[in-house]
Design goal:
- The structure is a single chain.
- The strands form 7 sheets. The chain has a 5-stranded antiparallel beta sheet, with no helix packed on it. A 4-stranded antiparallel beta sheet has the order 3-4-5-6, with no helix packed on it. A 4-stranded antiparallel beta sheet has the order 7-8-9-10, with no helix packed on it.
- It contains 1 helix and 29 strands.
- The two termini are 25 Å apart.
- The radius of gyration is 19 Å and the shape is globular.
- A hairpin with a 5-residue loop joins strand 23 and strand 24.
């Protein structure tokens, strides 16, 4: 089943709360479509589009990898070992699917051609929960976070060697992870008011404090200018850090402190997309760094529940997401010429 968002009809669905809330009814909307996942209450999440029509995602609760064909709507799944609780996946240019075995302390490799699964265990039993993965441009390494283990890691694809780096702050909960244009690794430390930066060559780690101690960064993006954008899940802010000047800027989301921003993406224009998950339906919000204004607000058709992680596919101008309402969704943020 596919749901579609009609801009005019849905623009008034948001009920804002809190003194800081702003009216979003005059903002532009985008087209969002959702495909219902046939595996009940499986928490489909973290889709990765390898093309406009081929999308992989995980079922965290039900323990599977799955593939969506957007042309036919067909979904098929690959069951993983019991207790895997896959949290995230990425797909290489060779079509190989890599996933985080969040409860089995491993990174998995699935070959869609041979249907074979390879499991790469963590070298330290303390590294119990691989969380979010990202691959470098050369496809030589996979960088990842381990939230409960309080670590960050690097998998060298050629020899399957795993290197681990403990966080400098106890209980910092490394969460979202992105690679900057210069190759450095940025991590949101959800358990504290900090970002982490890893040198990809030396693995040297430094931590940067955010301006507010109560902030809790969850996901982040790094734009072409090297600036690091983050969402503060605790207080509803979008923030940016400039590594060159070491300066911060922050903007409250229109939903105010109730926003609970979670999933993020950045498009080819450097605009930031963030989902307010503290309101129902979840609101898919767009922010323009040039004007420093929120310009787009679209309710998620299924309600969303919680949109946890998003993937931007530049060739189709689409941001993909998984919803706790048991849908995989696509938001067209940059419409393409027919």
């Amino acid at each position: 089943m596919m749901k579609s968002s009609a801009a005019a009809a849905l623009a008034g669905l948001l009920a804002l709360s809190g003194a800081a809330a702003q009216d979003t009814s005059a903002m532009e909307t985008i087209d969002i479509r959702e495909w219902e996942v046939p595996y009940e209450n499986s928490r489909p999440r973290d889709p990765f589009a390898e093309s406009a029509t081929s999308v992989w995602f995980v079922g965290q609760r039900a323990g599977y990898l799955a593939h969506l064909n957007t042309e036919t709507g067909e979904i098929y799944k690959v069951d993983l070992k019991e207790g895997s609780a896959p949290h995230n996946l990425i797909v290489g240019s060779d079509g190989i699917v890599w996933y985080a075995g969040n409860r089995t302390a491993l990174i998995g490799r699935f070959d869609p051609q041979t249907k074979e699964i390879e499991e790469i265990p963590m070298p330290d039993e303390a590294a119990r929960d691989p969380h979010t993965l990202i691959m470098d441009d050369e496809e030589e390494h996979i960088w990842f976070t381990l939230q409960g283990a309080n670590m960050m890691g690097r998998l060298t694809i050629e020899d399957r060697k795993v290197d681990l780096v403990p966080s400098q702050t106890e209980g910092s909960r490394p969460y979202g992870i992105k690679i900057a244009p210069n190759g450095s690794i940025w991590v949101a430390l959800l358990g504290t008011h900090k970002l982490a930066n890893l040198d990809p060559e030396t693995m040297a780690l430094r931590e940067i404090e955010l301006p507010r101690e109560e902030a809790r960064p969850r996901r982040l993006e790094v734009t072409a200018d090297g600036r690091v954008w983050y969402v503060d899940y605790a207080d509803g802010y979008l923030g940016v850090y400039n590594p060159d000047t070491e300066e911060f800027d922050e903007w409250l989301m229109p939903q105010g402190a109730d926003a609970r921003p979670y999933g993020t993406a950045s498009d080819s224009q450097g605009r930031i997309w963030a989902v307010a998950t503290g309101v129902q339906p979840n609101m898919f919000m767009g922010f323009d760094p040039e004007t420093e204004e929120w310009f787009s607000a679209t309710p998620v058709p299924s309600g969303g529940g919680t949109l946890r992680h998003m993937h931007y596919h530049e060739p189709s101008g689409a941001v993909w997401f998984g919803a706790d309402t048991n849908y995989i969704g696509r938001a067209i943020v940059e419409p393409q010429d027919e």
